[in-house]
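Dear Dr. V.,

Thank you for agreeing to look over these. As mentioned in my earlier message, I'm a first-year student in the group and I'm still getting used to reading structure tokens, so any feedback on how I've presented them would be very welcome. I ran two proteins. I've put each sequence directly above its structure. The first is here:
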Amino acid sequence: MSVVLVAQRVHYAGTRQLVSRVRVTSLLHVQALHTGGGYDVPFRRCSAASRIAVVSGNHYGQILPASHSHILNAGELLPGISVRDLASRRHSLVQTLNDNAPAAVTRHVVAMASAPQLHTAPDVPCEYRQCTDYRYLCGFEEASSVLVMEWGKNDDKPVTTLFAEPRNEKFRLWHGPRTSLENIPAVYGVERALPIDAMRAYLSENYGSGKRSDCMHWYSASSSHDNDLYAKVAKQLDDIPFRSNVLPHLHAQRVVKSTPELQLMRQAAMATESGFLNMMRACNHGDGVSEWTLNSRLSAGMLESSVGRTSRVGLSFPSVVAGGARATVLHYLAKDMFIERDEMVLVDAGAEVHGYVSDVSRTWPVSGTYTATQRALYEAVLDVQSHAMESINTAAASGQAMSINKLHSLSLGRMRGNLRDIGVMPSNLSLNDSHTVTRQLFPHALCHYVGGDVHDCKYVSGDYQLKQGVAFTIEPGLYIPADTAPSCVPSRFHGIGIRIEDIVVIDSHGNAELITNLLKTVDAIEHHLNTSTHADSEMEPKH
């Protein structure tokens, strides 16, 4: 899990007005302009507990409808997602696990740890991001907690317990309040809440020393969880004879997105689009632009978007802003070089809104106009993406199954033909050799699932048959490093990297529906680059 920079939404005493406009003044600082005066707000990492709610004198560790009615409706823990929805998710998982357990099993237990609290220094916490699997099942946003679900063979819903840290005045002083154990059941719709220090004794008493020879432990160890905390859980459940991983079943449920989840993803896509357009406005004047300037424009654009003015927006992963030949490095993160006017920039970035993410890539010329070579490569990549979407729709019309692995296979064939057509490789190259060259220049998968995580639902196979509600990226790319390009590739193509990425979701007819809506044709990008207003941009001198 990556640590990212986000901007906190700010309330000021005596008013419900929010920060309405932000201007990035450096990579780690935002000047927030509030109606009636300017306030300096650090654009920094901060702890989870600073996201608090105060209702009738009680303090809670995350936002609630009574304190944040501009974000949540009554009964919601996330926008559009209610406490009942979370309970329904748990019930659905129980039914699936009942169906997949051995006949000898009459008792089940799922134990899942929260995400760890990361730090930038021993006593400086990063902004907390809850594990997506954990949030999906209970909505609890506090660290150092464990979710335990227990049920019998014939039960259709579990008894759910949250083990959490009790209130602590020292913690509250430095980081803000935690939700009290007394309030957790009512707020989160679970049956009970107990102190985290009581967890080991509880599990040992109920499941230790061979007490449950008929029990199935559905374990959930994952890099997204607090594995030190989970190790304490697992140790108390070692005597349970039946064991199986819950995550493949949970991810098969999570991969199909609900309407509220898709709405949050669309909001993240809208904020992302605003960030990209703001970056493009910094191009096509002067001698070029720096990668760090574009990166700051990305963050500012997200925050200045209509979504950023009404929702808490962050980055879903560290952004790739790669100029010139650096775009041939797939995950280039340094962002510390100047981009010449005759070079292109590849940007791979996405906003996160209330735990749901976006993931978009575009490549454009800093000068505002693609050269003939740049245009040929760009349109070859764009054609592969368009063909993939057409393939989904064609399969849906004929009732054929489609998967992201099949899409990838189709995309390799399409890319191979395009590379021959534009002269990247000779037309007389053998089929095997042309396939090898294509795989070298297009080395990554075409698709990955996306939703609560940018690489979502890792236990769902690439051969999974796509159906309504499944969201995934389509991201063809070409990367031609000058020093390692295949010998058959002409030198005019060397040093160029291009990626075009959008998120699609399968609709009720089986067709691919775009979630992202950012301009991407050559004509549309050039028009925007050459007609945007640049008066608000001052390029720093080249060093």
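The second protein is here, in the same arrangement:
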Amino acid sequence: MDQCVGSATVYSKSRRWQLKGLVGSLDALLIAAVYRQTARTQLCIAHDPEEAAYIYDDLKNLLGLTSVLFYPASPQQPYAPTVANHADHLVRTETLLRLQSKTDVTPIIVTYPIALTDKVVHPKVLKEHTWKIQVGNKLTTTAVNPTARSARFCFEKKDFVYEAGQFAIRGGIVDVFGYAYSLPLRIELVGNIVESLRTFDPASQRSLQVITHASIIPQLSTLATAHPYQSLLTYLRPQALVWFKDYALVLDTLSKSYSRATQAFQEKIIDNNLQTLSTPDILWETSTSWTQALQQFTYIEFGTRFEPTTDEISTYQATALPPFCQNFTLLAEHLCRNQSQGLHNIITAASSTQFDRLQTLLEAKDTTVAFTPLTLGLRQGFVDSQVGISCYTDHQIFGRYYRYQLPRRHAKTQAFTPRALQTLHPGDYVVHLDYGIGRFAGLNTITTNGKQQEVIRLLYKDDDLVYVGLQSLHKIAKYTGKEGVAPTITKLGSSAWNQKKKKVKTKIKDIAKELMQLYSIRKQTPGFAFSPDNFLQASLESSFLHEETPDQAAAVKAVKKDMEAPYPMDRLICGDVGFGKTEIAIRAAFKAIHDNKQVAVLVPTTILTLQHYNSFCNRLEAFDVRVAYINRFKTALESKEILASVAAGKTQILIGT
């Protein structure tokens, strides 16, 4: 990586630099190399959100997740109602907190012009509204009481915490979801001492990671403050570097945004006769204020459009890669020519399985071809003759779509969640793992060992009650059964529910026993062992336009292993719509065709026959595979001709109901 710095010593005394001739991901490699050598804060401003996301993804893959931050645009429109609980609020606040912290790793911030248009709270305000918590320190639950601290923090008290801006108190446990992290915090108190501090999943309410300290911050856009709002540049350290993809575009975006804010301000005053609104110059950045704030920093232009004057210029002799479009003969020629010129060939791929396919494909063209595999995702390759590197990406070679990955928020699950709990109504049927089927009877606060605790109240037969604490929420599920048929309420203390569970367990054991006997016979029955993957199989799989998900890659590997085994295969692939099951079937069918086998694809509905026919044809178009389908819309003559073609071995894949 450090080779990419080349002759551009951007950490010298010069204030303005222009780096010309950068192509592909060379810009990200250069930023990462400078960051490693200088350990200085870096602000990288791309053209637009998409380009910023790709550069962020490159830097994250090069340096690690903790070193790179993404700063998105505010979802708040000028003088419009406040947008609450937006994920971008959390990302922006987390970035400001990291920039202000003196203990965290010095970060790189990746953003784009429109994200810089609105000013942010003064660093003093952020410090005043940062509630720091550490294991072993004193804390009282009144600190988050609506009449005390949370009134200033604008948090809302809830029974269960499931989104930012909420808190809950259950005895000595305090749950708080601030705007500094993507996950809420669970504070466990012994007396008034913080005994433990953990993050937890707001969906399942289960603890995830034990931590020693944390900061809680409110939604900054809602704060009323006497301190003036500041530019994002105010948060940068004095020695920070600012990278511009297009300096003029930033100034132009700031000017247009300020004009829109001024217009919205005037319309708001006219429509509502308000005189107490903050003026645009207080809340929004102007090109003049931005330029003034930038003067104390070294800034670097690295795009294709540059300012007329600068202090230093460095030019790179880098060239872009041609579109290979799965032309492996052309790729082999390129790699061999690079070797003869003394260039080091590097091929990057997010998945190591791509290298095995590439090796197979290239060896079929030229056995002298050599490259260094690098398991790393980059958006675009390049050739830099100055440092002797030719970098290729697998998705450019195969013509695949490359997907960036932004910071992930907590994932939604199908589990019974606190949010779903809020939608339950008294009288709804629920199932408890230990007690059986009952009715939801609302939420209550009870006192246990002198401490108040929020519980769920379940009503069973003969009006018996069960109180379920938050820690047992995972044992509850909403009842689902035949529509219009009410279930039988379980009687507490009876053996009915245990007998029902025992009966189900017995049936499951019987089924498992039958399956074991079946698979024992299957293992002893000789089958057809398909050949290992060849050049054509690797070519088909590498032409897949999308990045394989981990589950999809695992399923493909398992299916191939089954097919190559010397006994009959029996495997079920499950997945939601759009998760790539058809691609697995296409690869398995193609593998079977290589060993002169025909494939029948059964689908449940008539319309799916045509959909799968189109999918198979599109993927196998370049491999001279004949695919046909048959359904009730085919005439008798058409069906007869298709079946005759199958019988004659001319049609390799037949799709039907």
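From my reading of the second output: The first strand starts at residue 16 and ends at 20. The mean pLDDT is 84. Does that match how you would interpret it?

Kind regards,
E.
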